[in-house]
Fold this sequence. Notes:
Pfam families: CSD2 (PF17876), RNB (PF00773), S1 (PF00575). It catalyses: Exonucleolytic cleavage in the 3'- to 5'-direction to yield nucleoside 5'-phosphates. This is Ribonuclease R. This protein is α+β, with helices and mostly antiparallel strands and 747 residues long. It has 6 domains: 56 residues, no CATH class; 70 residues, CATH 2.40.50.140; 67 residues, CATH 2.40.50; 319 residues, no CATH class; 52 residues, no CATH class; 124 residues, CATH 2.40.50.140. The chain is built from 17 helices and 34 strands. The strands form 10 sheets. The protein has a 6-stranded antiparallel beta sheet with strand order 28-27-26-32-33-34. A 5-stranded mixed beta barrel has the order 3-4-5-7-6. Strand 1 and strand 2 form a beta hairpin. Helix 10 packs across helix 14.
Amino acid sequence: MTQIPSKQQIMDWVAEHPDANSKRDIAKAFGIKGAARIELKRLLKELEAEGQLERRRRHYRDAEALPPVTVLELLAPDGSGDLFARPLEWSGEGPVPRILYAPRETDPALGRGDRFLGRLVEVHGEDHQYQARLIRRITATPNRITGIFRKETEGGRILPIDKGQDREWRVRADATLGAQNGELVQAEQAGPKGRLGLPLARIVERLGDPSAPRAVSLIAIHQHGIPDEFPAAVITEAEAAKPAGMKGREDLRDLPLVTIDPSDARDRDDAVAAFIEEDGGATIWVAIADVAHYVRPGSALDREAWNRGNSTYFPDRVVPMLPEALSADLCSLHEGVDRAVIAVRMRLDAQGNKVSHNFHRGMMNSRASLAYAQAQAAADGNPDAATAPLIDTVIRPLWHAYGLLAEARRRRQPLDLDLPERRIELTPDGRVKSVNFRERLDAHRLIEEFMVLANVAAAEELDQRRRPLLYRVHEEPSLDKIDALREVAQASGFTLAKGQVLQTSHLNRLLAQAEGTDFDELINISTLRSMTQAYYHPENFGHFGLALRSYAHFTSPIRRYSDLIVHRALISGHGWGKDGLSVEDSERLTETATHISETERRSMAAERDTVDRYLAAYLADRVGTEMAGRISGIQRFGAFVKLDETGADGLLPIRDLGHEYFHFDPDAQMLIGADTGLEIGIGQRVTVRLSEAIPMTGGLTLELIELEGRPMPRGPGKGKRGRAPRRMSVKSRLSEIKRAAKRRRKH
């Protein structure tokens, strides 16, 4: 009689023979023949049902083990510079195994996110379970999807959370990664189409409960691929750092330096002081945390800071560029504590012009950690216990210097946008408590002007010393964008002159025309949209928005890698030590500039998406409520409205605008009714009803109630717009509108 093996014997054999694990192979190995195969089949099905074995076509394998050959994705280098990979498919109950990638000298170079077919060898006694060798590179990079998993009998579906993406994705039963119904997941495209015509996806990461407190920022972090966990080697390196000593530093501890930050500031990397001079001018000091002392080129900290590029700020958390041991401690300029800094001393004449500057590597001790409102109250004559002793030595000199800089700014005419910043206040459990606009104080402007001047001094210093650096570049807007802005200005009753070399002063005159009118915010937003996006570059192309010839970022090395590069360049240029700009830093400045420009845009998109989701969550309880707003954008599919109360943007879908066809005119930025000639354009006041708010996507859908005070019908069959005197073609109607606009401009 044939001896049937036990379940454990079958599992042990499968683990030892990963290349020969079909039912036939197992039967042959244990000498099972004839009717005994039925019993073997039953055992294999039980093991499969229990999750002990996984069936792949006609083969079985240990569900908690990886096959010897599998498709892998390369991850970013860890703190020690080692390369790890993750399997694209994993169905085990335990954590995904760590796989060390061990390239041979002849292998092609692979980077983060590259896919390859790898041969795995199991290892023991290490911090990883497998070592991988390259078989061949796989060049195709599939689309990524973040969404909600809906479990079904066979696999499930993913409902994307991205605004504007309503296509569902189907997940096969063997590609769910064990995701539960309603769980937030990250997936990638696994094929063109499956059953029901839906594209296929495989889940690559489970992100947990999407309704959990503070899940909103977590969604953005994963959706945009922002690294949010420091490798162990980076944490170890940061926590091993010791406070810098006085060797090689100037003693700046007698300077009356103070920090002025938001009341909820998590780090303090800049301090300021000022002195009033006899000629009416001023001397300004700006001291910046000496991050370069702690983050050395080529270190684990440096590699991770480069990888992140910058810190990312959300209403409920910060994803920092550096670990807290540095960002919140050794590099934070706390009150009453000696801290290493790189400082710049700048001399202003009585007209606010910078006449000289010089840089110092020193040690400071902050007199006080002030909040903006606290410093402003002291300047306005209402000091508290902390600021009263600082009035003569700190507050009055600072505001004197600010007055000089404000006058110099008025002459220079940088772009003077006035865009209120939203402040989302959360409850302790992560729910939205209120949405307000941040108050703009002279204290805010003072710090901004001091930082701009210090950044200019850093760029000029390195230019003079002919040292490589990263400039902050902002090129002038394109003619097409300025023409579009001119159309918006004319539609609002303002003018933007043509036929001259564009300067920021021309745009400021437009902004001044709109100030105090109903079109104030619209013109500010439209002007901002006409601008090009600032970026980093090792060549100097000027800064249009600030009206400056040379500009670099120097003042925030805790949260921006660009500033760390500038600090290192200053250290090398002055011969202050061996922690300056390395040869490797210099050789890859172009690569670094491109990379950190991309990480900055990534963070901005994640922060914007998070704010949209919080606003949608805040407004979700007010569906059906009427709200006032203004048309802020026109697209072929509808109109965008910026709501007055919260500044949130919602969509008026074109399908819901009425019972006639609307033509989209991109030049005039209008939607025009084919029957009535009704014009819907940028700047118009509207009353809308909130018809849908989706916190998961941040989407707001609106219904038009009134346009410029005129009640609107509620859609097809719900009312009449009035009869047009005659029906004309859309083309004729557009021609008539443009002729009327020309007549208005002449008069």
